[in-house]
């Protein structure tokens, strides 16, 4: 049983049912999400020991966050209580050519106001095998960035493997620092890069295309600059429309290129959190299998997440392995 | 901001959830619909000033109709209260090869009993840019027909553009007049014809096929007979089954033929009201763009309606424009 | 096992959940009701063999009516299919001092259009022990009245006991006949009178008060006029408000007066159909017990109905007997 | 038809169903509220012409606010769109001795950031008969206070009647001004005081008790200080527990004391917004009846609100008049 | 109107809504199922007279089973009440490559404990045209096997046609007898074999493939061994994934091979009970049409079941005939 | 922070919504319960460290049990997985004089089949302060009894305080042992007796009444026989009906008698688990306060549970303390 620590904002997702618009019905459903928490939850379903560090409101909403994470097997012992509200987002779910739409309420959240000194990183990272971060966290606020930076430094000192998902979200980064500068600094502290040409272009001011050849060149350049990075793990997606996707994954480990089969999701149930499912699958894979199987596991985990409602991937390791063994017919299990 | 007036019955749609049959569950969901009201609602979402004329029951059901229309931005100031009940229909939603089924309760409705003299058409059509009617209204009752006729005459006198959607519904027309006679008379008062070979055959006793060549010939014949008609706007649909459709639109404006690309709806959410969405898109388009863009707008609006629950199309002008710019992948909007 | 036949309109009840107003939510719930059908359903729960005669729409709504009655043990073999829609009503449920409100849609219903000659009364009443009617039926339409009259005559010839619940509803009776004339004629064919001073005043143009003394005098006068009536069975209700009622029942059997204890319903769950529950309890009681126990059974059945959702009383004979044995504490049954 | 303008924050209320705690179920229901919007909505149900001024998020949540107000007959034409999120609160509904609990997320809301100069008060108050404000608005932010102050000054210049509900909420007032100073300044601009000893003590640093004698003395003192105040209208409540309340209202108009009967709410459906229902009832009453009937109307409106789900009172003028005529039995209306 | 008797366990299906996992939501939905009851229900929808024999718990759960069957037109007069609980299963519904999962609770059920002597087979099979059994029943318990055996013997004596669906479920058969021995014995008493190479291999220890040629050889061998078998009716399925299936049916009647067209279910609504829908369609077909039309009817009935929620097929004979006439577009029926 | 261990069956509660009967609606809601697990959950909400020992099915139902307990803060690390199904019960919720009804399915459950040797009691009871058991456990099966006995012996050896709630349930105890014999043996190992005359009469073959005097005599007799018992803690309940209760608690600690005030629950939300809430309140109280305050805490906790949906009490220590300080008005907490 491996121990993984994640750090990041937990958001409440609030949505009308089915494909309804908010103004069509006063019934709602909620889940909790947040990219790093989603990774922790998925890793817990795979049987790992996970702990999520975050800050939540000191009211029954924050209490519900802890309950939610505990329910799904994530340790909440180091979560910080704050008098600021929990960040949240509203979702209207699209279909076919109609996009899903998200309205955020997170800029004043408990997590944005997190006190970097309030986190006991030494205790948090004790006996830890893996630390995972994403580009959302440093994009939220100076406090969030400082807290993450501290965590990464200590994780680095402890020799913990660090995975970076430097997703760049242009709507964030409103506190006066440049995304590129900060992300470069944080990637330097990391060992596994989850991303591809798009993310590398953002970091290195390059303009690689989505072609495999470019992916390899971009990966080489990244590893050249950051030799601490042991592998670049990307996923590619073809969206016929909002309800029908095809996904594949590829890697460059510094020596070899490898690409998975394509998996086709003909009836998307929930698109949110599929990237986090990929990341969790990859981390689990890299902790337990070789690179290639890890990539297949990540791709299959990602595919399965499209059939799970809510932000986090709730499938087991056995269900993912079943897929990579080629069982795609979805036959009933009695 | 253009002002559009519509006239027609508002029906309550009552349906069990999902694909359940009525006898399977005592949970229901309701929406309000009615072809002309659907057009008004969609036009209001596109930013137009709309007013719907109808008659509703003078009880909390009629009150809910007004609330519904107001919620969606339609002016209800001239709606007539009646001691007759609101018309309604029950819906069982099919899937794949199973058809949806509708059971009507409308023959004794507030709207069928509408007093033609109770409508203040002069006030209703003040400053109005566009008046829209469909063949459902004159099919319902003599009163409804007389009321519509009066409205069309006054609209005509005021030089308001009139669109006709002379949909022929054989289950109606039970009050002793011939559909053909009355529809011909009303089309004569109109300027935009929303229909194709099917509707023209009904009016002119012809037998044109669905081929483009026939569509053009039929349109020519129609315009020859009714020179007031400035354009014939048709849509065509291929239904693989109840859950998967492909749609296209075409026009003959007296001089040119034009046809849109095909849009594919791989996962139909709600089929009802897609024709009304087309009509609303067309009217909006003709008020704001050229003929070709109007047709594309209409086709895209129609496609998007298949992803919206309920009878009326709740998408914005921006969402439709996004589609005709080729953005069909349904990528999440944050 | 006794066989009971009832005749009357089945109405669909459609209501928003809880105490919401229709315009507050598009979620609804439905039940089927109708005073005579409610009596049949309750009698079926008590273990009797019941058959309900009515007309329903020949669509999936009418199909759902039959399913509903069958589910609750009522024989639907003689129900007539009609191309007219099923009658229905919308309900907004009040609380405390806020009244529940009902909006009907029944004047054009399948039942109002029932063809008196379409009912095979001979077959319907074969081996029948009891026939029950209410004043709602003759109030609806000439057809409904004629059909009922015919049924009563044949039941009379067959010596079947007939109970009359001549509830006068002023909002009905719109087809040109006087309620009083028709109800008197139908009561003359009946043996058990379910009602009190209010109903007798309506029939006899008297003005008796609700006092027990007046109830006895009114009953005497009624039996004097209609010696076929063997007993007058009334219930009285004190409504503190819509959520808190107290009920009692009393009888005059031509010789003796008897009154039950008062039962207090401190938390009304559903007020609709409580009178029908009383009638069903009374009929069951008179078929199986003596007059006094029958009255207690009726009162307890009525009280229990206030705790059951929907129009019909779904409690068993054992549950009612439990109450009249004094078990009012509602202790959990494991 | 009177025209009333209100100004204040619209909050989204999000709550699990029934008495569930948030962590017990992921189903939610929402309503919109906010004390001044609640008053506008209730006044619209009474048949008045109402306009609400506020700021909402420029996303589908803000869009849903406008739809909601329009649905309930409130003019939304002057609502300001903001890139800040809508304020909201989560609610867990208690029962009996368990309190309901509220968790706010409003300190960074669109309304708190409202630009006082963005409101066209001249246009907003055109032809207006009544302007209503509460102490929540100046408690939220300097911007909100400044905007309100400006509105009150212009309303005063126009001779519009101004009602003040100076509710003091200790959890707010976090922007560095003293509640007492600001509320005194705003009461000075007002004509109708909605409050009693509690509110007056807050304003005048007095310590009057809840006794009628003290209420009269407090009112006298208030009117002495602010002769613009024409009447003091208070309501008193006895809470047996969260589910059972008794309410009464009283007034001092400068000359006379008057007190209503007590109304008993034996089964509270929704406690939120009952004070706003009282204010709306009072304003409607003072615009249409004499002082005493206005007070009775306010008390009855308040009582009825306890039976309505959601934040705003959706009863009609007729329903309130029905109560003050003594009809408390909640008999079904057919 | 043909009379059909079925015998087997009724199971309650309990499932979270949509594709949710049980731990994601505490909302559930239930249906009743069980392979033989599903056949009875479907045959009742086709207009046949059906009776189902089973044992249910003597509590409100067992009561609900009877209500459910009666609602759907199945005679419950010979159902046995037991002090053992009703069998049930929990279902998590998958999508795309994620399998649905079933968790059973049936090993101690009322049906497993059924007393073979408690069933009045003589009465049950009076005037019966067809008796249907499946391999689930003898797999459950010795009692269930003995009861079935007795029924088959009496049916055989009465010359009733017997259809066998010898589905082999390896998770059952825990009471010490070999499936093969018992199934062979029971097939010997039957006339119609519903199954193909898979089921025949199980019975005859052969290893035929799914190819048509092998199907024919297997069928020949079966009929050679059991000359009472008049036809072998198989269905084949291609599952692209859990949400997209293609089905076909084939038969060997001792002389000829026949195969239907393929029907494609592009959007599976509910996969459970589709085999039972095929069996019911086949039985109805064989009772009313020739072999080939019966097979087409069975295949179309099976296809339609994929669009119906719950375990049993609720479509009418007309709906199935509509499909085999080639109407696959799912056009709305008004 | 105290550590408490509980041992007993976890049952799934499945119920239709509101007061509906199972056959009225196919919507259900579930909670997990079981008397000892309810105690553990409530103690966790009060801030204690709790661990529950049980056996659950090794499927997604058992997985959901663990998630549920973890969500509510109970350690599930020693729960045993079994191939037997989880025990469950169906509930129909009554109101007023109508009783709630429970239908059990537990006689073949995972817990009944628990292997006494599979529990690592040494590890389970490490650092434990309190062990709680009830009479339900030894009533279920010989295995359950043996497992409990072993646990009690080890707890006794470790000097852990043991509370006994020897609730006698006559419907259980079907495995051939006498309840009285076994309960006496287990009470002998315990220190705190939760019960009163009823339970003592069962154990000692006495016939004490519910009067305080008798309670004291009974308690004295019990302590005389079992000097290890340090206190007898009883609660008394007056049920006006299923919706309105009054509760009080009393104790005899060997020296003194003490009785709490009566708390009135005028609107019962959920009656199930209120005894467990009392037990949990008592245990928490005895671990943290003196006897009298402990009793008040227990009574208030019990009262609050009546307002919480589901089997377990989810209120915090602060909420209970708030009640015993006399705050019964249920004022909203903002």
The arrangement of helices and strands of chain A along the chain is EEEHEEHEEEEHEHHEHEHHEEEEHHH
Return Rg of chain A in Å. Answer: 19 Å
CATH topology of chain A: UDP-N-acetylmuramoyl-L-alanine:D-glutamate ligase
CATH architectural category of chain A? 3-Layer(aba) Sandwich
Oligomer: homohexamer
- Number of helices, counting only DSSP H or I runs of 4 residues or more of chain A: 11
Question: What percentage of residues of chain A falls in helices of 4 or more residues?
Answer: 25-40%
Overall shape of chain A: it is globular
CATH superfamily of chain A: Ribokinase
Largest sheet of chain A: 10 strands, mixed
Number of domains of chain A: 1
Distance between the termini of chain A: 28 Å
Say how many strands of chain A there are: 16
Which class of secondary structure composition applies to the elements of chain A? alpha/beta
Protein name (chains A, B, C, D, E, F): Sugar kinase
Keywords (chains A, B, C, D, E, F): Kinase, Transferase
Domain Carbohydrate kinase PfkB (chains A, B, C, D, E, F): 1-312
GO molecular function, one term (chains A, B, C, D, E, F): kinase activity
């Amino acid at each position: 049983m491996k121990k993984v620590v994640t750090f990041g904002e937990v958001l409440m997702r609030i949505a009308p049912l089915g494909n309804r618009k908010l103004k069509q019905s006063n019934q709602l459903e909620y889940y909790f999400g947040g990219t790093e928490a989603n990774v922790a939850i998925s890793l817990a379903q795979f049987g790992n020991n996970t702990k999520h560090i975050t800050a939540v409101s000191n009211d029954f909403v924050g209490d519900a966050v802890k309950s939610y994470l505990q329910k799904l097997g994530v340790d909440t012992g180091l979560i910080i209580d704050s008098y600021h509200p929990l960040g949240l987002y509203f979702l209207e779910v699209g279909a076919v050519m109609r996009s899903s739409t998200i309205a955020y309420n997170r800029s004043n959240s408990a997590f944005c106001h997190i006190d970097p000194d309030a986190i006991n990183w030494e205790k948090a990272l004790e006996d830890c095998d893996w630390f995972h971060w994403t580009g959302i966290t440093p994009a939220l606020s100076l406090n969030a960035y400082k807290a993450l930076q501290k965590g990464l430094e200590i994780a680095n000192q402890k020799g913990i493997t660090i995975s970076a998902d430097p997703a760049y979200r242009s709507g964030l980064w409103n506190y006066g620092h440049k995304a590129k500068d900060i992300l470069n600094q944080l990637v330097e502290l990391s060992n596994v890069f989850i991303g591809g040409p798009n993310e590398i272009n953002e970091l290195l001011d390059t303009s690689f295309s989505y072609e495999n050849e470019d992916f390899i060149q971009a990966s080489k350049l990244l590893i050249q600059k950051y030799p601490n990075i042991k592998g670049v793990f990307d996923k590619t997606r073809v969206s016929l429309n909002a309800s029908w996707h095809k996904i594949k994954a590829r890697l460059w480990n510094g020596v070899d290129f490898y690409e998975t089969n394509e998996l086709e999701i003909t009836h998307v149930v929930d698109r949110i959190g599929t990237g986090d499912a990929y990341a969790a699958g990859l981390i689990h894979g890299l902790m337990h299998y070789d690179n290639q199987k890890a990539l297949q596991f990540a791709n299959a985990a990602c595919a399965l997440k499209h059939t799970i409602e809510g932000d986090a991937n709730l499938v087991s390791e056995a269900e993912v392995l079943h897929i990579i063994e080629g069982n795609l017919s979805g036959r009933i299990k009695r």
